[in-house]
């Protein structure tokens, strides 16, 4: 992607050229903790049944680890950090397909290897951030409770090259990725490799109330903008 020659190409040519590059892959390693000089050489030390990851002891005593490829085309992965360093099931990230610019938000179930997506035409989301519901104890709601409140929401700032589409922050149900609300910001915005930033035209407090997800909806305060709710 980052070649000077690409600066002279038309957009469609650039898209075709980028299809030749390898997309990012969400992988998991299993690191064996009990490795000693007596560990048998050439044997896979991973005994877990739900992964294809391997860790094989080499002749020189080192351990060569091979990851389990879970999902192709996912960048900036996030989890419910209440489950950090614990067994978790869901990963949220930005979908990256033909270019480094993500155009979707995805939730990946690493047990079933399935995923759901949020998408809006001609829009580019930032890294999704998981915000747990107050008092939530579960990583996610069970599938047999479709009407129960989500265990949290996903926040992401969205920009578009279309000048008629204002930058906005979207609030998604973390279980289904259904859009709950959005806050539009009438300001110019740019997308870079590591940051999506806006320069507000005014410093006017804004309150966004998420609707329909709980009896006492949390409020999210922004620095500037207007609210456009969907639901």
From TrEMBL:
Iron in keyword set: yes
Names of required cofactors: Fe(2+)
The entry's keywords: Iron, Metal-binding
Annotated TM spans: none
Family matches, as InterPro entries: Carotenoid_Oase
Highest taxon listed in the record's lineage: Eukaryota
A GO BP entry: carotene catabolic process
GO molecular function, one term: carotenoid dioxygenase activity
Family per record: Belongs to the carotenoid oxygenase family.
Protein name: Uncharacterized protein
Organism: Mugilogobius chulae
Organism ancestry: Eukaryota, Metazoa, Chordata, Craniata, Vertebrata
């Amino acid at each position: 992607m980052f070649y000077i020659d690409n600066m002279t190409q038309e957009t469609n040519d650039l898209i075709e050229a980028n299809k030749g590059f390898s997309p990012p892959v969400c992988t998991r390693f299993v690191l064996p903790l009990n490795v000693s000089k007596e560990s048998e050489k050439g044997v896979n030390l991973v005994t877990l049944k739900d992964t294809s990851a391997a860790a094989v002891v080499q002749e020189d005593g080192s351990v060569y680890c091979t990851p389990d490829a879970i999902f192709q085309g996912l960048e900036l992965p996030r989890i419910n950090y209440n489950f950090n360093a614990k067994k978790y099931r869901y990963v949220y990230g930005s979908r990256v397909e033909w270019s480094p610019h993500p155009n979707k938000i995805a939730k990946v179930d690493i047990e079933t290897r399935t995923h759901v997506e949020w998408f809006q035409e001609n829009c580019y989301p930032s890294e999704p951030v998981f915000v747990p519901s107050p008092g939530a104890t579960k990583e996610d709601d069970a599938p047999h409770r479709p009407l129960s409140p989500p265990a949290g929401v996903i926040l992401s700032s969205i920009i578009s090259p279309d000048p008629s589409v204002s930058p906005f922050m979207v609030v998604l149900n973390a279980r289904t990725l259904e859009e709950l609300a959005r806050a539009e910001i009438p300001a110019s915005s740019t997308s870079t490799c590591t940051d999506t930033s806006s320069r507000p035209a005014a410093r006017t407090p804004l309150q966004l109330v998420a609707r329909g997800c709980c009896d006492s909806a949390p409020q999210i305060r922004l620095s500037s903008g207007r609210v456009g709710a969907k639901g």
